[in-house]
Design a protein that fits this description.
five-stranded antiparallel β-sheet, elongated, 7 helices
Amino acid sequence: MSRAGLFLSDLFGGSGVTSSVSGETSDLPRANLQTDLPGQMYQQWEGQEGGGSFEITTGTDDLVYINEGGGVITVQIPGGWFGTVAALLSHLNTETNDSANQTGGTLSHTYSWSYNAGSRTFGITAVGGVISIPNSSTPTRNLMTILLGWDATNLSGSTSYGANEARSSTQTWVQYVTPSGSGVIAPNLFALILESVGGSETSNAKMYGDVNIFASNSYLGDASAAWASGAALTVTVSDRPSETENTLQVGVTSNATGYRYWFVRWNHVDDHTHHRIGILRAMNAISSSTRTVREIQDQDLFVRTPARTLENQHPVALKSEWRMGIELERWEAADYRAWMVEAKRYGRDRGMVFALNWTTLLSGSALAITEADNGLLFYGTIREYSASSYAGNESDYISGQMSLGQLVP
C-alpha cells in the first residue's frame, strides 16, 4: 500500500543558497519564487520589453534553409543561449552571413534578421535579391519553424519574410547554487506552479510540457544544452494537470546524492506575452516507513463561490480549492512525531506539499497529473491539527488528525 508524503521546508530557499534567472523584471522579481504565496510570481523579462530568453540547440533547431535561385543552401547557426532579443539578432546576423556555416553553396546576398516589438514577430530580409525559403520542404532542425514562429510553409517571391506567430521568449531558466560541503542538497521532490499568459496558444504540451531539472557538482553555464549533456542528475517534471483548479507540476527522484549546482529549465515555444513561475521548491518527504494514511475525511473540491440567490444576484467568483482531513492511526511513535510534531513546528502559515500516494509516485506507478486532478497531490497549507492520542498498552503507537487545504494562485 502506498504511503503518504508531507513536504515542508524549501531547500532552494535555504540559508546561503543563491539564485540567478534567465531574465528579471523589477515588478515580479526572482525573490517571489521562494515566497509561500503561489500568486506572488516571478516573471521572465520578455523580448518586447527589451529582454527575451532564447536557446538554439545544436542538432535540434540550428538550421536555416535559403534558396537564392540556384538551389537550397543550408546555414547552420551555432548553438547557444541568448538573454535578449538583441543578442539573438546579433548572433543570427553574424552567423547567417558567415560562409563557413553554409553548405550546398555560398550565399551571395547579405541577410538581416529583425524583431518587431509591437507584434513580437521575427523577420528575415535578403539585401540583394528575391529569395525563397523552403520551410515545408526542409523541416529537419528548422530554426525558423521550430523556434522563431514561422509556419511550415514554403515561402517565395519576396526579399523579406515575417514570422507567422509571435514570440516573447522560448525558455525560462532558474539556477541555484548551494553552499559547498555540508550545504549541498539532495531533494526528492520538486514543486512548480507555472503560468503562461497573453496569447492564443492553448496546448498544455507546448506551454508547460518541457520542464527539466538538472544537477551537478560542477558549474555548467547558462546554456541548458550543456546541462542536458553534462549533468549528473536529470529530473523530468510532470505534465500540467488537465483541470484548472490545481496546476501543480512535480518532479520526483530517489537520488540520495547531494549536489551544489541546480538548473531548472522551462521550454515554452508559444505565442504568449508573459511567462511566470508561482512557486519553485526543492523538498524532502516526511513519511512513515511502515504506516500509511488509512482514512481520509471530507476530501472535497471546495467551491468557494457563493450561490446566486435573490439576495445575492451577482456573487463574486472565487477560486475552488482542494481540502481533506487525514488520520494518522496508530503510527509508531518516531514516525508520528517526525510527521505531526514537525508539522506543528513548521506552522500553518507556510506553504507545503502533500502527496497522499507518495511512494507510488516515487516508484512511477502513479502519475502526478492524475493525482493532482483528483486532489490527492497539491500545494497548500496545514489548516488544523489535533492533539495526540495514546492507547493503553499500545503506548508506542500514537494517533492524530490533520486538516489540509490547497493554496491557489
